[in-house]
Amino acid sequence: MAFPLLGPGRTLRRIQEELETMRVNDVAWRDGRAFTLTYSAGTDVLEVAQDAYQRFANENALNTDAFPSLGTMAKDVVATVLGWTHAPDTGSGFMTSGGTESLLLAVRAAREGRRNQSKIWSDLNIVLPTSAHAAFEKACSYFDVTSRRVAVTTDWRADVQAMADAVDDKTILLVASAPQYPQGVIDPVAEIAALARASEINCHVDACMGGVTLTYLERLGHDIAPWDFRVDGVTSISVDLHKYGYTSKGAGVLVHRTKELRNDQTFVTDNWLGGTYGSSGILGTKSGGPIASAWAVMHYLGDNGYERVTESARTTALAIANHIDRHPSLVLLAQPDATLLSFTTSDEQLDIFTLADNLRRRGWYLDRQGPPPSLHLTVNAIHNNVMTLFLAHLDEAVSESMSGADASPGTSRGAYGTID
Ligand SMILES: Cc1ncc(COP(=O)(O)O)c(C=O)c1O
Q1: Which residue CA neighbors atom 4 of ligand 1 most closely?
Q2: How far apart are CA 406 and CA 400, in angstroms?
Q3: What lines the ligand 1 site, CB under 6 Å?
Q4: pTM for the full predicted model
Q5: Which atom of ligand 1 is nearest to the CA of 416?
Q6: CA 255 to CA 90: how far, in whole Å?
Q7: Which residue, 176, 231, 302, 407, shows the most beta carbons closer than 10 Å to its own?
Q8: What are phi and psi of 356, to 5 degrees?
Q9: What is the 3-state secondary structure (H, E, C) of 77-136?
Q10: 110 CA to middle of ligand 1, Å?
Q11: Ligand 1: which of 37, 138, 208 to mutate, most ligand atoms within 8 Å of CB?
Q12: Measured in angstroms, how far is the CA atom of residue 405 from the centroid of ligand 1?
């Protein structure tokens, strides 16, 4: 059987109808039904994001000589993130397409830095807790670096002594997360950074999830464990805008303590027939949409807007955590340090993934993860509107999952990311 060609062109109206038909089974994230993958601070913010995105969707940020507007917006966005992370005057960064690209580049920068400095080319490694994001594995695979994972402590935070034991003269990077994704707790950044400094190793703080939230929680007067450039020894930080910055997908920032460190991230060649090619990240051609959307949403919300949506997400996360903590059959894995949390069950009659299936039937989408088998919630501003309904459905779904009506093990463990 040959693969089909496109057939005759269709009208815009028909295309729109077909697009809407295809999405009927998609999770209703705009209504707050997804506790993963998507973020919403309300329809007005979405409108700003989408309006800016579509204005620049087909502009190309590969060369801002042609589109100085995108250069101006990106610089402004990066400057804001340097401010959020309390970078010194030497601080410098670039926009990326999101967390994964930022983490890839942090590893790549550490590798280039070490190669330039000490001419050590092979068998390099990074030392990181088991809780650090999967994208570090991708980075190690792409850049031929070994990942040395170190078990976390019983409170799910990085075990600094064990990390110290794993460091050797081929270690190029130590990693801390603020917060880590699986249980939502902040690693002891100050201790990890001190270890890195003492060993003259780069230290990356993955604040892809927490960069915006922790900044504004601190401004609101919350006590936040140190995580940014005010910590000696931190050399780079990633902050995603398409998460708690509430901008369109494809926007993150990687900031470095100095421009020299940032130089290790960039790539320049003239070894072809097309002239000098320089790029800050993995992509070549890149849409101006995410840059414009980030710029627009950040200035639309402003500091007061971010304080409002951050407070809302935090309050909702704590209320959900509290409900789970008091539930007789559920076990909260850790009190959330920001807005991410996860839970499992202590009840042998309850299969946690069956519970996820039963929540899905009620329209809720939660991440399934492990080890240990558990469910994960990325709570954001939209969830304040639906929290009461969610908690009622959660209780109902727990009872249903234990009543024998559907006591079979959950249909699937699910996956955080897919290949398709
Ligand atoms: C802590 C952390 N780092 C990095 C990433 C990767 O970000 P992205 O999916 O935007 O590539 C995530 C994604 O959830 C994350 O939670």
Answers
A1: 99
A2: 7
A3: 98-100, 103, 133, 135, 177, 181, 206, 208-209, 240
A4: 0.96
A5: 14
A6: 11
A7: 176
A8: -60, -40
A9: HHHHHHHHCCCCCCCEEEEECCHHHHHHHHHHHHHHHHHHHHCCCCCCEEEEECCCCCHH
A10: 19
A11: 208
A12: 36
- Closest ligand 1 atom to the C-alpha of 179? 1
Sequence-distant contacts of 86-91: CB under 8 A, at least 24 apart? 86/228, 86/229, 86/230, 87/229, 87/255, 87/257, 88/229, 88/257, 90/257, 90/258, 90/259, 91/229, 91/255, 91/256, 91/257, 91/258
Nearest to 103 by CA among 175, 156, 152: 175
- Look at residues 281, 244, 249, 286 and name the one whose alpha carbon lies nearest to residue 106: 281
| The pLDDT value given to residue 109 | 97
How far, in Å, CA of 63 to CA of 103, rounded?
23
Local structure of residue 60 (DSSP, 8 states) = B
Residue nearest to atom 16 of ligand 1 (CA): 181
For 170-195, what is each residue's pLDDT tens digit? 999 999 999 999 999 999 999 999 99
Is 365 in a helix, a strand, or coil? strand
Q: Which of 108, 101, 138, 102 is nearest to 124 (CA)?
A: 108
| Residue to substitute in 128, 240, 342, 369 for testing ligand 1 pocket (most ligand atoms within 8 angstroms of CB) | 240
> Nearest-CA neighbor of 77 among 200, 224, 247?
247
Whose CA is closest to 372, among 349, 395, 342? 342
Looking at the structure, give the CATH architecture of the domain made up of residues 56-298.
Answer: 3-Layer(aba) Sandwich (3.40)
pLDDT band for position 411 (cuts 50, 70, 90)? low
8 Å CB contact between 216 and 307? yes
For ligand 1, mutation pick of 36, 100, 183, 283 (most atoms within 8 Å of CB): 100
pLDDT > 70 in the chain, percent: 98
Total residue count of the chain as it appears in this document: 420
Ligand 1 atom nearest 98 alpha carbon = 10
